[in-house]
Write a structure and sequence with these properties.
67 residues; mainly alpha; 3 helices; elongated
Length: 67
Amino acid sequence: MAGLRTWRAPFAPIWGLHALGIGFTLGRLMHAVGMSGGPLILRQLGMVLTWTAMGVVSLAILYLVFT
């Protein structure tokens, strides 16, 4: 994620990168709590947040590579 800011997207909004990073970190924490015996919904939401953040970053990188 940090590579997006420094590589080819210095124009990328910093708040967007922070939102993706926070979503990724929060998703990993929620997933860990769900795995350690917490509510199952935390594990599920954690997985969704994690994969969403990774998917958005992956699409942004592909966009930057091919444009």
